[in-house]
Design a protein that fits this description.
heterodimer, A: mainly beta, five-stranded mixed sheet, four-stranded mixed sheet, 2 helices, 7% helix, globular, B: alpha+beta, 14-stranded mixed sheet, three-stranded antiparallel sheet, 13 helices, 23% helix
Chain lengths: 281, 550
């Protein structure tokens, strides 16, 4: 764990310093091990795709009383609810974070400079689930123009709690991989979001069709994991041959609630630690 | 002088070994700070010098701060620094969990580690409004060692860059213009959403607040700066605005400055405004509450302008932790008492801060959360909606000497006489013989009347009674010019408070000022007149005698 984190933080300085010089290698923390910059051969790269299915009856999401914030309430045509469980029309589960947990070569993946946007609009986080790479900026935007506090509660990274009382954008980064980091607003106790941070680009979030696609993977055998805020994690071994697109479907069931009660931040060190990458335990 | 002393056998030595001498035998210091020895020892004590031999220095592996930590800190913060010591469950906010290195009161950016100076400040000042005391009893060296030790509980101090303190500058002078500008900004950036329009921690978002551990937490009551966890000066408040209070809902507003949306100067104005909400000096408890003698009727309305002339007496209240069920998370931490009488009636105005007018549906969930957080092993939480309540307590009779009934509602031999007010049913009189007994009194003879008003997170309650009592077996006629024992109890229904769960005071005294009697004005005049008369008589007699001689 420590090795991983230190190497990640050294990576910050390395990348800031060298401007992404592709051929350089960086000494890694206390182990002295070198990590080469990742090079994926497009001629052999494969992909993992799949859908996250949902069985059973979806629980109703908690209704939100936004009467204290008329400006937010106006942005919702009907009574807003929390987004804890969203089952799509095709019986798939939205907002599942799917990522490569193990099996990637020990390489240094370039950090995108383009920020990932986490918006606050209608007193909701949009998107509800965010995926980002280590040191990639997260543009936290307040489109509501009223007071939000953005309270990120990681356990591997350092957190922050910033007040945004007006329309503004604040860039934040996380230096270490962590799945997932709860983000809450205490001015509006119903607001919550989760940020998945990885030191590689191999992750996806299921949308309105419940599908995911993780492309540009070097051939190899991977452990992929699906994470859902209510139903927990599921892992799967997938071997991807050169140029192969492998199908890997997950299925969650309504009865098997694996997570902490509604509204509580996911505690990766708590009783549900099986969903946490081994290096973070 | 030489005092030879020898012993044989196996035993355990715990604590600090002081003195010079020799010890033969074999021994080991265990990690818990116990010295176990086996064999024969001869200890020659000829002079007790303060030669420090602590278990810590005896073991190369043990951190020098561990002994001090285990002795003074572990009870609350836990032996592994997880904030889970045996006493932790009775505390809100909970003791710090050192493993996450998330510290509330810092000079560093939101989420950053604290500097050593930050940690020193907390040890020296403690954290007002919490169970964390000031550790001035520890030497500078001990504090250094403890700080170094608590940092070992978290991996972050080893991996993160050294924290840098923000340049916080110093407080500008608090002018009316700055305070007014701060007030407008307080509105504009919506501090009131949590802290309330008047700053009493009663904003619309207050009931749903929770800390990092999911425990209920209250926005600070900005009118009681002596309870601020990080200190109550304008500079302290500015620090909290810049750094946030990590692990709580209070965010940092530094990003606003970095984005050019607010200047440091403007943020200082907010700090000055918040500071201005509390009294200039921390109030001191007043042991004797004086009821001023007034002409005409005593005011019955809580907002009667007559009350503005009376200096309020500050009476701090604490959670009732003597009898079961104990209560460690009271809402009401003080009551301000004003009193007036006119020789016929006495009126008390009691003002206390309470963010909710109970029962309030918005606080319904809070009630469950707080009882759960406090682990109500003593008694189940009360069912159904709970009102706010306030009780004024007197002895049933006035006695000379120091023999007061037990302050906590008396006992079987020495009962107390109560004015019990509830926000739903009003006031009644009762006799209590202990905390769980109540005997309501018939409302005849000298009924107590009540008028209450709730606004912006504050109750104002006026209780009025005639001084004379007819049923003197149970009530006493209130004398003037005598200090009568009086005590106060408060309950916030939204905080799950009823019965033993509430706030209490010890005995104070109520003194009804004596009328300045007419005699003190007339006597000098009479005396002067009498003296003049005597003088005239003497002179006249002298003149008469003189004339007679002639």
């Amino acid at each position: 764990m420590r090795t991983n984190r230190i190497s990640a933080s050294i990576l910050v300085f390395a990348l800031a310093g060298c401007g992404g010089g592709g051929e350089q290698t960086q000494a890694s923390g206390d182990s002295g091990e070198a990590k080469a910059a990742a090079v994926v051969d497009p001629a052999t790269a494969g992909a993992i795709t799949g859908v996250v299915r949902f069985e059973g009856t979806a629980p109703a999401n908690e209704a939100i009383d936004m009467s204290a914030e008329p400006a937010c309430a106006q942005k919702h045509p009907s009574t807003p609810t929390k987004q804890t469980v969203i089952v799509n029309d095709n019986r798939t589960l939205r907002n599942t974070f799917v990522y490569v947990k193990e099996g990637l070569p020990a390489q240094r993946w370039p950090t995108p400079t383009e920020p990932v946007v986490l918006d606050q609009t209608g007193c909701e986080y949009v998107p509800h689930i965010v995926g980002v790479q280590t040191n990639q900026p997260i543009a936290i935007r307040n489109s509501d123009g009223l007071l939000h506090n953005v309270n990120a509660k990681p356990t591997v990274n350092r957190g922050f709690n910033t007040g945004q009382p007006t329309n503004m954008t604040t860039n934040k980064t996380f230096t270490s991989a962590e799945v997932m980091i709860p983000v809450t607003c205490e001015v509006h106790g119903w607001m919550e979001s989760y940020i998945g941070v990885l030191d590689h680009p191999y992750f996806a979030i299921t949308g309105p069709d419940g599908s995911f696609r993780i492309p540009n993977l070097p051939p190899g055998t991977y452990t992929i994991e699906a994470w859902h805020e209510r139903y927990g994690t599921k892992t799967m071994q997938v071997t991807v041959a050169a140029q192969e697109t492998k199908q890997a479907d997950f299925t969650y069931s309504a009865g098997a609630v694996a997570m902490v009660p509604l509204g509580k931040p996911f505690d990766p060190h708590g009783q549900h630690a099986e969903g946490v990458p081994a290096e973070h335990r | 002088m030489r005092t030879p002393w020898s012993c044989t056998g196996t035993g355990t030595f715990t604590g600090t070994l002081r003195g010079t001498g020799s010890l033969t035998g074999t021994g080991t210091f265990t990690r818990t700070g116990t010295f176990t020895w086996t064999g024969t020892c001869q200890l020659f004590l000829f002079l007790f010098l303060f030669l420090f031999v602590t278990p810590a220095s005896a073991s190369a592996q043990e951190h020098p701060g561990k002994a001090t930590y285990d002795k003074w800190c572990a009870e609350c913060h836990g032996s592994e620094g997880r904030g889970d010591g045996p006493a932790a469950a009775t505390m809100l906010p909970r003791p710090r969990d050192f493993t996450q290195a998330r510290y509330q009161i810092r000079t560093t950016a939101s989420g950053a580690l604290p500097t050593d100076a930050d940690l020193h400040r907390i040890l020296k000042r403690g954290m007002p409004g919490t169970a964390m005391p000031a550790w001035t009893k520890l030497s500078r060296a001990e504090r250094d060692q403890v700080i170094a030790y608590i940092k070992t509980f978290s991996r972050f101090f080893a991996s993160e860059p050294a924290p840098a303190a923000l340049d916080l500058g110093s407080a500008p002078r608090a002018t009316d213009e700055r305070i007014e500008a701060g007030r407008r900004l307080y509105e504009r950036i919506e501090c009131w959403k949590c802290h309330g329009r008047d700053g009493r921690g009663d904003g619309p978002s207050a009931p749903t607040q929770e800390d990092e551990g999911g425990n209920p937490i209250r926005p600070a009551n900005l009118r009681q700066n002596w309870m601020f966890n990080g200190g109550g000066t304008a500079a302290d408040i500015y620090g909290r605005l810049r750094t946030g209070i990590d692990g709580t809902p209070m965010p940092s507003f530094s990003d606003l400055i970095d984005a050019g949306l607010l200047t440091e100067d403007s943020l200082w104005n907010i700090a000055l405004y918040v500071r201005s909400l509390s009294p200039e000096r921390t109030p001191e408890p007043v042991e004797v509450i004086r009821a001023e003698l007034v002409a005409g009727d005593v005011p019955e309305a809580p907002d009667d302008a007559a009350w503005d002339r009376i200096e309020p007496a500050y009476v701090p209240l604490v959670g009732q932790i003597i009898a079961r069920p104990r209560w460690f998370a009271p809402t009401v931490t003080a009551v301000w008492v004003q009193a007036m009488h006119n020789g016929r009636d006495v009126a008390l105005r009691l003002s206390w801060d309470d963010p909710s007018r109970s029962p309030d549906p918005a606080w319904e969930e809070w009630r469950t959360r707080i009882i759960t957080a406090m682990e109500p092993k003593d008694a189940p939480p009360a069912e159904g909606p709970l009102p706010d309540a306030f009780t004024v307590q007197f002895p049933t009779r006035l006695q000379d000497g120091p023999n007061l009934p037990y302050f906590l509602n008396g006992d079987s031999r020495n009962p107390v006489y109560l004015w019990e007010w509830r926000s739903d049913t009003g006031v009644r009189e009762a006799i209590a013989r202990g905390i769980h007994t109540r005997e309501p009194l018939a409302q005849d003879g000298a009924p107590v009347r009540a008028q209450a008003r709730f606004a912006d997170g504050q109750w104002q309650l006026v209780l009025r009674r005639t001084l004379a009592a007819q049923d003197t077996a149970r009530r006493f006629t209130m004398p003037t010019g005598t200090a009568m024992p009086i005590a106060f109890f408060a309950w916030d229904g939204s905080n799950g408070e009823a019965g033993g769960r509430g706030s209490i005071s010890s005995w104070y005294f109520l003194h009804l000022n004596e009328p300045a009697t007419a005699s003190i004005f007339i006597a000098p005049v009479v005396a002067a007149g009498f003296t003049a008369l005597l003088g005239i008589i003497l002179v006249m007699r002298a003149q008469k005698q003189y004339r007679a001689k002639e």
